Amino acid sequence: MEAGLESPVDEDGVHDSFSQLIAEQSQNGGPSDAFQLQQLQRHLDEEDRDNVAHLSSPGRDLRERRLRQRDVQWEDDERQGDPLLGERWSSATMRILSSMPSRTIGRSRGAIISQYYNRTMQLRRRRQSRPAIRDFSHSARPSIRGYGMEADSTDAEVSKRERLVNNLQNLSVSDRVRMLRAMPLNVAEKSELRRLALQKEKSTISGSQIPCCSQLKYYIIIGARQSWYSWLSFLHSLQLGQVALKRVSGRFGSGVLSYFLFLKTLLFFNLFLFLVTGVFLVLPQAVHPPVLPAGRASFSGLELLTGAGYFSDTVMYYGYYCNYTLGRSCMEADGGQNVSLPNGTRLDCVSENLTYNMPLAYFFTIGVSFFITCIILVYSMSKSFGQSFRIDKSHSILAMKVLSSWDFKVIKKTSVKLMSENICTQLKELLAEVNHKHVKNTRCQKLWRLMVHGLAWAICIASTTACVLAIYYFSGHMHQKQSSRSTIDPLLNEASLLALPVVVSLINLLLPGLFNLAAWMEDYDSPSVRTYVSIGRNLMLKVSVLGVLCYHWLGRVAADPKMIGLECWESFVGQELYRFLLMEFIFTLLDTLFGEFLWRLFSEKVLKRRRKPVFDIAKNVLELIYGQTLAWLGVLFTPLLPAVQLFKLLLLFYIKMSSVMMNCQSPRKPYRVSQMTTVFITLLCFPSFLGASVCVTYTMWSLTPSSSCGPFRELKTMFQAGKRWVEALEKDNPNLSVLARAHSYLVENPFFLFVGAGIFLIVIYFHSQVVDGQRKIIGLLQEQIQNEGEDKKFLITRLQSIHEQKRTPGRRLTSQDC
């Protein structure tokens, strides 16, 4: 039967069924909803006419005519937009329409109070088993049917209100709040019910005699709750730049906001690395310092820029850490001096108390910190994928922003202003996305744009290649010059170490300007596309530069350190990374000063324009990723480098925040960047963290450590520290041979690393596929909803036409009889 009704052949049967339904509704003697609505509207109109405030006057008549003309014009526009509004429906069709679930409006207040009185009674009866409040069914959809018949008397409503207040009073605080929130009443009536419930509760408490212990318990609970809320408020106030971020979001949109949120994410990663290395490496070595060689360099101030000199013999660098087991008994046995043996560990120290194997701690601290960072990155990336790559059509988001984006709990004037600016900017972005039209170009125009894009990419690739080759040859020249440097002026030799970081930072500062010029030549229609293209070009530059620098450090310096007179090449590489990180920060400050502040002053004072520079998201974000990659590369050679990066990011956050608010303007074309945070996290994970992990793993597995410094001295590889520890455990306790086999299969074999990386990639791939499948399903469901709406319009139109056709012959026969 159902299949038959769905086929076009039985369309007449469907129309007959609808006609029968109309006939039944027409024969129904009870008052219909449409009739009640018409009577209600007629009574309201009569009351308005009888009202003294509506007495006719010339000014009022003129305003009424204007309002009437405006209403007529609005109705004409609506009828042109929706053909269903242009029809004059019959009373039978109106009865059918009024009984549809989608045409419901609401119930009377008495019905709501009666319904929630019953719900509170049920909740009180079920409190013996303490079920959750969310297990209760929601109220049915309010209906317009029975609008006049469901109206209770005033006395009955008051009695039901009192009983509802009594029931609310007997509920717990959380259940009372949830029940009041679920009631479809206005805020004033909810506040009145809550006030009455609290008033009766206070009168009941004051009227009854409460024992002293209960009062003390009551005051302790209140004090603990207030302390907890104060603590949460204090923690919320400690969040970095919360109010400033709201201001940035309101003035500059989600693109600039994503930069500062990404900077806060990097702060978290560096704080984690600093805590791990500080607790397990820096602090134990600082408590048990090694014996320093004679003739230690004094502090001259240049070390703050170069990182060499006085800082070389501190806990900041790899060479300071010892290769023996730290312990109090060892120092007492050797007259207060720590001793290192060729085998790497003192056996008599291991058997004593308070021992700490520094080589083993150094190896596992670096490995575990990178592993945990990888897990956090993968989780953040998968979560960001799920949040950004979902169905978020601009029309639906625009409706939600317009109708339900305001938070009515905000009462401060500053907070209200910030929220209004934020919502206004978001609406601009959504409207720009909705109104964006894809222009169809001709073949000649497409060919011309293709040639322009090809020329721009050729310029960018050629300039990047030239700069990378310049860095490669200049680093080689500095390497040879360092091998033949004189010792006449140590300060001059130390200052010459800044040449390579200055050249690389200068290239990273100037070349993105050429990329912006190429993007201006391409003239992209969409600002978001231009941002993503700029991110790709800056990423190409940063990855190429870091690749050349890693080859210089691990291929030239580490391969033959004696050629340039280095006793500890690990500390030298750590100093190089410190210099690069510091120079990158200095040039970022110079770019902020000259590129934003001085340009604003020049534009306002000299050019007499109010035009300010636009914040370059791609350039600044890639600078953050570049600096974070240097920090991850240097944590093996400089355990305190995450602390330097943390301090740099804190300064950069407030400096950039002030510069953006003072010197920059919002983009000319607002655009929404729903997936930019996901792109940032992805770039941080794959090119940045993956490259740093490969370099650190290659250093620990393949390169030979220095023989005169560091915790891995006189070992073939850093990896042998863990292997020797496992062998010692197996020798002392043969039952731990399983641990030795697990170490050989899981840690010594590089296949485990590839399997782990493959599992992470598979998890990310499946998560993205699941999200993509959900997006497709939601898209199909939305399309089905739209089709059902069109079906309703079609059925209502055909229903009206068939009904009119059946009424027309009857009218003709009546006119003929007359």
Automatic annotation (TrEMBL):
The keyword Membrane applies. InterPro entries: TMC, TMC_dom. The chain crosses the membrane at residues 257-283, 360-380, 450-475, 495-518, 539-558, 578-599, 676-701, 751-768. GO terms for cellular component: plasma membrane. Residues 568-674 form the TMC domain. It is found in: Membrane. Belongs to the TMC family. This is Transmembrane channel-like protein. It comes from Cyclopterus lumpus.
